[in-house]
């Protein structure tokens, strides 16, 4: 997280000019990298409000459109393939976009001789003196504002926090960093743009229980950092990650907890490398007792994602679960995954993963929608899991028949939750409770990785 100095507001009465300053000067560690998170997509209208020091910028021109006040509701709407911006002070116009609600380094409220107040953003190292000239504040944490008659010292503090509250169809949520509104496929998309460490504050508690062992929380922080940085390096679109399980769950500022914030801070800059490259650290809830090779579950072979037994994953939540489907229910499940049958006559397991635990290939026979014979083979374990709507592809399947030996349904008993690649979160908890450090946990689940500081630079 960037460290900000928030200077309290002072009013300096001058004959011709008075100024109120609210400045934020960045200090501390160098930037760790920026992550762009898609929060809302394909919307017609959104609203937001700010807490702290922000300005709204038209990115196409660089022009500052408005400086929203604390708690002031601003409206962003789709209007004839443009972005319309309005607020309590009126309509600011429509724009091609994107529009960026960004943290302002310094905001000056200027009161001129006629008493009219204008607001503008200036560099954090600058101030406006009594004759209207911009002067440097230098690196001082307590700069002064000087008039012709006196000098007033500005006292600083580090308790300020900039947040944007985004309101959509669901309840409003608060987010650190900047908020960008852009046009995408005919709709509005809201993207949270923020520092990787601030992003992780909202990810770790959304992905793992905050009361778990601190070493498990740290392992999760590093895995989530790796995943996000790798996506930020390779993505080419208008955002890097989604805010849900499509990428990793991100709850913003309101999801944060002291224990997970501590885990993020205590692993700041720690990443896993393979061949001097940041690894894509896949993880899942529960392995069911074994993890898998990446090529068995998905398609590509990844050197650091290997099958291994997982004796540390022990829990009562994701073991020995059972699911039963009639053939009619099975038809509906498969149809939702794109496999359309009018009738199912048989279902067979063709192959298992290299661990022997998960179903890798499944064959389904029956009639297609036109009444013709249809055979479908579903390949790779995660496709099997999703096609059947299961928690895991680690299962045993029993077919059920009527007296005429017609298939009537299936009974499935399984263990685990998720794809089974990389780190098991319940396994991480188990290792932590047995005394392992977060580095040990990561090296167990990600084969051959190197733990590096300073983001592997």
Number of strands: 34
> Helix count?
8
Distance separating the two termini: 18 Å
Low-confidence stretches: 1-31, 114-127, 136-142, 152-159
The secondary structure category is: alpha+beta
Lateral strand order in the biggest sheet: 6-5-10-19-20-3-21
Cα radius of gyration in angstroms:
28 Å
How much β-strand is present in the residues?
35-45%
Largest sheet: 7 strands, mixed
What percent of residues adopt helix (DSSP H or I)? 10-25%
Overall mean pLDDT: 86
Label the overall shape.
globular
In short:
This protein is an alpha+beta fold. Among the domains are: 3-174, no CATH class; 321-414, no CATH class. The chain has eight helices and 34 strands.
How would you describe this protein?
- The chain is an alpha+beta fold and 457 residues long.
- Among the domains are: 3-174, no CATH class; 321-414, no CATH class.
- Helix content is 18%, strand content 39%.
- Helix 2 (214-234) packs antiparallel against helix 7.
- The protein is globular and about 75 Å long.
- The relative contact order is 0.13.
- The model is unreliable at 1-31, 114-127, 136-142 and 152-159 (pLDDT under 50).
Present the secondary structure layout.
Blueprint lengths: L2 E4 L11 E10 L6 E10 L1 E7 L2 E5 L4 E4 L7 E6 L2 E6 L2 E6 L3 E5 L2 E6 L5 E5 L4 E3 L5 E3 L7 E3 L4 E3 L9 E5 L5 E3 L2 E7 L2 E9 H12 L6 H21 L6 E2 L15 H9 L4 E4 L2 E2 L4 E2 L5 E2 L2 H4 L10 E2 L11 E6 H10 L6 E10 L6 E9 L5 E7 L1 H8 L6 E7 L5 E8 L8 E2 H9 L4 H8 L4 E3 L5
Parallel strand pairs: 3-21, 24-33
Antiparallel strand pairs: 1-2, 2-11, 3-20, 4-7, 4-17, 5-6, 5-10, 7-8, 8-9, 10-19, 11-12, 13-14, 15-16, 17-18, 19-20, 22-23, 22-34, 25-26, 27-32, 28-29, 29-30, 31-32
């Amino acid at each position: 997280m960037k460290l900000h100095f928030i200077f309290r507001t002072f009013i300096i009465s001058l004959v011709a000019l008075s100024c109120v300053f609210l400045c934020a000067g960045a200090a501390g560690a160098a930037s760790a990298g920026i992550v762009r998170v898609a929060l809302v997509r394909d919307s017609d209208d959104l609203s937001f409000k700010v807490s702290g020091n922000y300005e709204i910028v038209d990115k196409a021109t660089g022009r500052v459109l408005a400086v929203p006040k604390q708690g002031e509701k601003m409206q962003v709407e789709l209007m004839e393939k443009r972005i319309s911006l309005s607020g309590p002070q009126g309509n600011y116009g429509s724009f091609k976009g994107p529009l960026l609600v960004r943290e302002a380094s310094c905001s000056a409220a200027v009161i001129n001789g006629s008493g009219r107040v204008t607001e503008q953003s200036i560099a954090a190292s600058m101030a406006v003196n009594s004759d209207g000239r911009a002067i440097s504040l230098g690196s001082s944490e307590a700069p002064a504002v000087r008039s012709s008659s006196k000098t007033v010292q500005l006292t600083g503090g580090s308790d300020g926090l900039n947040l944007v509250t985004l309101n959509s169809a669901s309840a409003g949520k608060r987010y650190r960093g900047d908020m960008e509104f852009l046009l995408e496929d005919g709709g509005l998309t809201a993207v949270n743009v923020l520092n990787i460490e601030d992003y992780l504050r909202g990810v770790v508690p959304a992905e793992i229980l905050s009361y778990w062992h601190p070493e498990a929380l740290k392992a999760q922080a590093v895995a989530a950092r790796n995943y996000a940085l790798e996506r930020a390096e390779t993505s080419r679109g208008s955002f890097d990650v989604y805010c849900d399980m499509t990428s990793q769950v991100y709850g913003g500022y309101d999801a944060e907890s002291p224990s997970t914030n501590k885990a993020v801070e205590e692993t700041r800059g720690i990443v896993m490398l393979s061949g001097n490259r940041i690894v894509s650290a896949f993880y899942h809830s529960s392995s069911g007792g074994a993890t898998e090779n990446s090529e068995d579950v998905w398609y590509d072979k990844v050197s650091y994602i290997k099958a291994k037994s997982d004796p540390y994953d022990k829990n009562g939540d994701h073991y020995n679960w059972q699911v039963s489907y009639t053939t009619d229910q099975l038809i509906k499940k498969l149809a939702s995954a794109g496999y359309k049958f009018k009738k199912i006559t048989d279902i067979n397991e063709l192959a298992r993963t290299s661990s022997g635990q998960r179903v890798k290939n499944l064959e389904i026979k029956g009639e297609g929608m036109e009444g013709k014979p249809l055979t479908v083979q579903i390949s790779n374990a995660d496709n099997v899991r999703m096609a059947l709507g299961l928690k895991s592809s680690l299962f045993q399947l029993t077919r059920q028949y009527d007296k005429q030996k017609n298939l009537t349904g299936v009974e499935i008993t399984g263990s685990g939750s998720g794809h089974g690649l990389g780190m098991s979160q319940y396994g991480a908890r188990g290792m932590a409770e047995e005394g392992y450090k977060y580095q040990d946990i990561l090296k167990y689940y990600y084969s051959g990785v190197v733990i590096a500081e300073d983001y592997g630079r």
